[in-house]
Design brief:
Distance between the termini: 182 Å
Number of helices: 8
Largest sheet: 2 strands, parallel
Strand order of the largest sheet: 1-2
Order of helices and strands: HHHHEHHEHH
Radius of gyration: 72 Å
Shape: elongated
Oligomer: single chain
Structural class: mainly alpha
């Protein structure tokens, strides 16, 4: 600006520049304030969100606390009811408690007695163990004597069994010899039957020729069979025949000449075959008896005679 009061362009530019700088500073301050307000707004929003979350959490905690309180109240009521019941039970159980205390005192006394008895038994057991140990030591010291005694007893039984076996064999041989002798005697008797029958028939025919015509049996009267009664009896006795009728029927088939008269030779031959026919049936029981005797002898144990020390000393 000049002295005359006129505004020059430089002056205007300078003023405008100053105003621009002032406005720029103001704008910067406003922008900074705006940014500060915006930051505060963001912080406030964040705080609001946090507070809202806290409110929700507090509501949840409140509901949970209310549920806990209700549950606690229910528990308290249950406990109060149980306490009331327990008090009633205590009133009823006090007499039982006294009885149990009495029983406990009695059982305690009994247990003390049992414990004392157990101590006595333990002492007796220890004493028995010592005695058994002493006995075992004595047995170990004298074991050889018992072994020798056992061997002697076994040897004695072996000798007894050997003697019994020898006796059984001797009896068996004796029975075998006697059976053989009986067989030889029977065979000899069978061989001599025919000759003796012929001799008896000859003697009877010479002495009593008429007796053969008169002697007949009741069965032979119908068939007109004849024989000498004395010859028949002698043949039956020689061969040990007892069934007279069966033997006569059997001997009729030995009538060689067909004259219906049984001679001594015919009766003798019939007797041999008649005895031989019945021999297997009679020998079977004899064999069974001999087998039973042998089994009984085999099962028979040797008789053992025990003597105590007193008897042996008396015998000495």
């Amino acid at each position: 600006m000049s002295d005359t009061g006129t505004i020059t362009p430089e002056t205007q530019i300078k003023e405008l520049t100053e105003k621009l700088e002032e406005e720029t500073d103001r704008l910067l301050k406003l922008y900074a304030a705006y940014e500060q307000q915006e930051a505060e707004l963001r912080d406030t929003k964040a705080e609001v969100e946090v507070l809202e979350k806290e409110i929700v959490e507090r509501e949840i905690e409140k509901e949970s606390l209310e549920a806990l309180l209700t549950e606690k109240d229910a528990r308290i009521r249950d406990l109060e009811m149980k306490a009331g019941k327990s008090s009633k039970q205590v009133e009823h159980l006090e007499p039982e408690l006294q009885k149990m205390e009495e029983k406990f005192s009695r059982e305690k006394d009994r247990l003390g007695k049992v414990f004392s008895i157990a101590e006595e038994l333990d002492n007796d057991l220890r004493l028995a163990v010592v005695e058994l140990q002493t006995r075992d030591d004595w047995y170990m010291d004298h074991m050889s004597l018992f072994e020798d005694l056992n061997k002697a007893i076994k040897r004695r039984y072996e000798m007894i069994e050997a003697a019994a076996e020898a006796e059984r064999q001797s009896q068996h041989m004796g029975r075998a010899i006697s059976e053989r002798m009986e067989e030889m005697v029977e065979a000899r008797a069978a061989e001599m039957t025919l000759e003796e029958a012929s001799e008896i028939e000859a003697v009877e025919s010479e002495n009593t020729p008429e007796a053969s015509d008169e002697a007949t049996s009741e069965d032979s009267e119908e068939d007109e069979w004849n024989w000498s009664e004395s010859v028949l009896v002698g043949v039956m006795q020689k061969n040990g025949i007892t069934d007279r009728d069966a033997f006569i029927e059997f001997a009729k088939s030995y009538d060689m000449d067909g004259n219906k008269y049984l001679k001594g030779s015919e009766l003798g031959a019939a007797a041999v075959d008649f005895v031989a026919k019945d021999a297997p049936a009679e020998e079977a029981p004899a064999e069974e008896e001999s087998a039973d005797d042998s089994s009984e002898d085999g099962e028979k144990e040797p008789e053992v005679v025990w003597r105590n020390s007193g008897d042996s000393q008396d015998a000495q």
